[in-house]
Write a structure and sequence with these properties.
heterotrimer; A alpha+beta (173); B alpha/beta (557); C alpha+beta (238); B: 557 residues; alpha/beta; Ubiquitin-like (UB roll); C: Ubiquitin-like (UB roll); Alpha-Beta Plaits; 2 domains; five-stranded mixed sheet; three-stranded antiparallel sheet; 16% strand
């Protein structure tokens, strides 16, 4: 494991230039490699790589001249950063108070049963990641679920499951 | 830019605007219900009927009545259509020429609208948030001009102090005093931070302000910068609000292009630039010292205050941190004067407050009301009560607040009255609960929230919330005895009094307030203790942790 | 030198301005329990054991980070404080796996001392028995996360005195743990100089020298204070 996390000094020394690391370089340069840009850079890294693997964290730590443990501490502190690969589709159930009062926990239970995973997990086929949000600020249309970035409001468990099934079928066809 | 240029932009924009403007809400809630499709249909219908010269469709921010979205409003006729579906949208245009509009008509004379007093939300839902010209056309950036050319920084601070404005993020700290503290710090680098990390579940006022009228906040920040002597501002927004971030980015770019932000604003020596910082999903970052750490790129761990950020904040420099809604009040105060603002509200709580009225309520959405209005007026008159049921309690202040029972519905909504009944104003979430809601479950829900959101730095908050959650779960599983209830209360007091930051100090509030008003629900779940010679849950038995401590050591203590 | 006069537990004191309440109490020989505080590194006010009552303030303040003020009247041993301290220690014991009888630090453990000091003989809160793992990959030292109380002394010592920053805190809330490098085994972290300062800084038996058995750990916490005074004030006295 240790061998994989030692940062590659620069993309030029890497075996083959990876465009994704190039984007990280551009981002870090735009922030003048300032250590306080860590969260900004991690946002971009997550967007480019999909998740924050050890190699990426090591690369960022090296670029911003930060101790690796600090980078790891920050990356694991925030909910939005994922150190594990995520599914192709994301399904976020809002568990804010307004949604909770209107039955979002039943929606979550329904989806967990349907997908046979717990929240925070990804289905075995790597298709759907199920997560909960603390509040989407869409309380007016509670209970709300976000499927691949699209906010769906006033759902019930049956409707929510139907939407997720539609996504899965789309993936199969 | 000079004042004349600003006024020219405003008059050009007013001349450009068509005589009939059809507002369509494009905020997060209405977008989820096909608002963008409705805009397309409306525009198509206008073209079809060759009305382009008289009618325009404007994608606007939140109109407030989110529960009945998507909303479409026709100006100047003041017709409101609610729950519009794309198929019926074209008939709204037809109605302009005498046809029949299919979508349901909203009643603009309902108390939900007439009891409101829009100060911050004055132009929400009436201007296109993505075009700075529309903001300028309604008088935008003139307050900034006035402060720079007609007032000294000290006068601005004085004006804000006299207005009686208090922090809208929850604490209710006098805004003028905060500004004065930062302004009085010796010169050098200072910062202004706008706290848009609106994490309270059930609250979306700040999202709505940023999505509907971003320049209002940007102008407020610039005025704050001028008043306290800062030339750099940060606006910290949750990543969960992509539309707000997008509109802020556009707003900052447009303002920079016109020279309303950046160097030498209005050709004066005053510089002010604003950067956006995007959160990454941590409720605790709403706490100001945690937020500062997050902007600095670190873990969002709060630190003990003092020193307050006003003395030593971002990058160790004096920093002014205000909430979105607080900063959104500034231009109105400068425009209309402190005396006007201080005339609204109660003795100790001035101005208006925006609430997100949600939960089991007929009319849910955003309302801006003068301080001092009673909960009953909000819930029964404006909100129309609970659909097919009765109000049981109202939760204000999110995980830091409490549940107010229906017997206290006549409580006026102001900082001090809400505190007296065991809740807080908070950032403005107001969740209505009916008889089907178990108060112990609500307390458990909030404790679960705090347990997951604690940063883990201080002991009482990190482990106390876990133990409180376990006790509440034990209660709900009907395993708890009167001794457990006593322990729950004792631990609540301990976590409240000993935690490092506001999150821990207020985490027990939902439990304490429900215990105060709904104690019978807790007591109904209790069981009598049963003693077994060998209890099944051996894990719950006290184990002497010290093990083999030498007696001599025990004596020495 | 500006002087502040104040009262701690009915004793009149005069101390230098800028002194913390904890230092003032220490000078006067008034014991205030603490766990996260370590002489020589930045105080963080995290363990909440050193909270004191100050007359006229309705909030309890941590003595380690609160500066003395003129005319302050401070109480360190009120009934409320004693009860809260006991609960704090109970919470710490219930959170990890602190079994003194089989611990390397038995007899030389600050957590144990504090438990005795506040009169905690058992925890009224259910033990959580976490399974947090042990890292034995370092050739000289080891870390048993089950005994960690997250005081972050090791993190601060390694960062501020040794300058290696091997340690940091990962995750958040109840899931927090002390992480080495990029969540690597300690022995594989190149930045570690094997100086052993974290072993001395650790108040419990969480970080220890390999090969020590029950009761054999003797942490030299004073060494860290000595190092920082030597560096800052150029005084090499112990």
């Amino acid at each position: 494991m240790a061998a994989t996390v030692v940062p590659t000094a620069s993309p030029s020394q890497a075996a083959k230039p990876d465009l994704r690391f190039k984007r990280l370089d551009i981002t870090m340069k735009r922030h003048q490699y300032r250590p306080d840009a860590l969260i900004e850079v991690l946002h971009v890294a997550q967007e480019v790589f999909g998740f924050l693997e050890a190699e990426v964290l090591a690369y960022v730590a090296h670029g911003l001249k930060l101790p690796p443990s600090k980078v790891y501490g920050v990356a694991t502190f925030y909910h939005l950063f994922s150190l594990k690969p995520l599914g192709v589709h994301s399904c976020v159930v809002c568990m804010g108070t307004a949604c909770y009062v209107k039955g979002s926990s039943q929606i979550l239970e329904g989806l967990q049963a349907e997908l046979a995973i717990q929240s925070g997990e990804t289905t075995a086929d790597g298709q759907v990641s199920l997560t909960v949000a603390r509040c989407l600020g869409a309380c007016g249309i509670a209970p709300a679920v976000v499927l691949d970035g699209e906010v769906l409001g006033k759902l019930d468990p049956v409707a929510a499951i139907a939407r997720v099934q539609a996504l899965q079928q789309q993936a199969q066809s | 830019m000079e004042l004349q240029t600003l006024q020219n932009i405003a008059s050009n924009e007013r001349a450009r605007q068509k005589s009939v403007r059809i507002y369509c809400c494009t905020s997060t809630g209405c977008r989820a219900a096909a608002a963008l499709e409705i805009i397309e249909t409306l525009e198509g219908a206008i073209h079809q009927r060759h009305l382009q010269d008289q009618v325009e469709v404007v994608g606007v921010g939140c109109m407030g009545f989110c529960g009945r979205g998507p909303l479409v409003q026709v100006d100047p006729d003041n017709l409101l259509y609610q729950e519009v579906v794309p198929d019926q949208a074209a008939s709204i245009i037809a109605a302009l020429q005498g046809g029949e509009a299919q979508p349901q008509r909203g009643n603009v004379h309902h108390p939900f609208f007439t009891r409101q007093m829009p100060v911050v939300r004055e132009y929400s839902g009436k201007i296109d948030p993505e075009r700075i010209e529309e903001y300028i056309a309604v008088g935008g950036y003139q307050s900034l001009y006035r402060t720079i050319y007609e007032m000294t920084p000290a006068q601005v601070v004085e004006e804000i102090s006299r207005s009686g404005l208090r922090g809208r993020g929850g604490g209710g700290y006098p805004t003028g005093l905060k500004w004065a503290t930062v302004a009085k710090m010796p010169g050098g680098q200072k910062y202004v931070i706008c706290n848009g990390d609106e994490g309270d579940p059930g609250a979306f006022m700040d999202r709505s302000i940023l999505e509907s009228d971003p320049h209002l906040v940007l102008e407020g920040m610039a005025i704050a910068g001028y008043a306290v002597g800062a030339n750099h501002g940060y606006i910290y927004v949750r990543a969960e609000y992509p539309l707000a971030i997008d509109r802020l980015q556009k707003g900052i770019q447009q303002a920079k292009r016109y020279g309303l932000l950046g160097s030498q604003i209005f050709d004066s020596p005053f510089d002010f630039k604003i950067d956006i910082r995007i959160g990454a999903g941590a409720f605790v970052c709403g706490e100001e010292t945690a937020l500062i750490h997050s902007i600095e790129g670190g873990r969002g761990n709060p630190v003990p205050r003092p020193p307050y950020p006003a003395e030593r904040g971002l990058y160790q420099c004096p920093t002014l941190i205000n909430n979105v809604e607080t900063l959104a009040n500034i231009t109105a105060i400068i425009r209309n004067g402190a005396a006007w603002y201080a005339g609204i509200g109660t003795e100790t709580s001035k101005g208006t407050k925006i609430f997100a009225l949600t939960g089991k309520i007929c009319n849910n959405g955003l309302i801006e009301v003068p301080m001092g209005i009673t909960l009953r007026e909000i819930v029964e008159e404006m909100g129309g009560g609970v659909p097919g049921g009765e109000v049981k309690a109202i939760q204000t202040g999110g995980p830091s607040g409490g549940c107010i029972p229906k017997t206290l519905l006549d409580t006026p909504v102001d900082y001090d009255s809400l505190r007296q009944v065991g809740s807080i104003m908070g950032s403005g979430g107001m969740v209505v609960m009916d008889q089907s809601t178990s108060m112990v479950e609500i307390a458990q829900f909030y404790m679960d929230f705090c347990r997951e959101e604690t940063c883990g730095k201080c002991v009482p908050c990190r482990t106390g919330t876990v133990q409180l959650y376990a006790l509440l779960t034990k209660l709900l599983e009907r395993q708890a005895t009167p001794a457990d209830l006593a322990q729950l209360e004792a631990l609540c007091a301990m976590v409240r009094d000993t935690s490092l930051c506001g999150l821990g100090q207020t985490a027990p509030n939902p439990v304490l307030s429900t215990l105060k008003y709904f104690r019978e629900e807790y007591e109904a779940l209790l069981v009598e203790p049963q003693y077994h010679p060998h209890p099944p849950g051996a894990a719950n038995q006290p184990v002497s942790a010290l093990g083999s401590v030498p007696d001599s050591m025990l004596e020495g203590a | 030198m500006a002087v502040r006069t104040l009262k701690i537990d009915d004793r009149e004191l005069a101390v230098e301005a800028g002194t913390s309440i904890l230092e003032a109490a220490q000078e006067a020989g008034i014991p205030i329990p603490r766990l996260c505080h370590l002489e020589g590194v930045t105080p963080v006010g995290a363990c909440r054991l050193c909270l004191v009552e100050i007359e006229g303030l309705n909030k309890l303040l941590p003595a380690c980070v609160t500066e003395v003020g003129e005319g302050m009247v401070i109480h360190t041993q009120t009934a409320k404080l004693q009860e809260y301290r006991r609960m704090t220690v109970e919470l710490i014991f219930a959170e990890g796996n602190h079994i003194c009888a089989i611990c390397v630090a038995n007899g030389d453990c600050e957590l144990q001392d504090v438990a005795i000091q506040v009169g905690m003989d058992h925890s009224r809160f259910p033990y959580q028995f976490p399974d947090r793992g042990i890292d034995l990959s370092h050739p000289l030292f080891a870390i048993d996360h089950n005994r960690c109380i997250l005081c972050t002394r090791c993190v601060r010592v390694c960062d501020e005195i040794e300058g290696a920053h091997v340690w940091d805190v990962a995750q958040r809330g109840p899931d927090c743990y002390i992480v080495s490098g990029l969540n690597q085994p300690w022995g594989e972290v190149e930045a570690c100089t094997s100086c052993g300062k974290c072993v001395d800084a650790c108040p419990t038996g969480a970080i220890f020298k390999k090969g020590s058995t029950t009761g054999e750990k003797h942490a030299d916490t004073a060494k860290l204070e000595f190092l920082s005074t030597a560096r800052e004030k150029h005084q090499w006295t112990r």
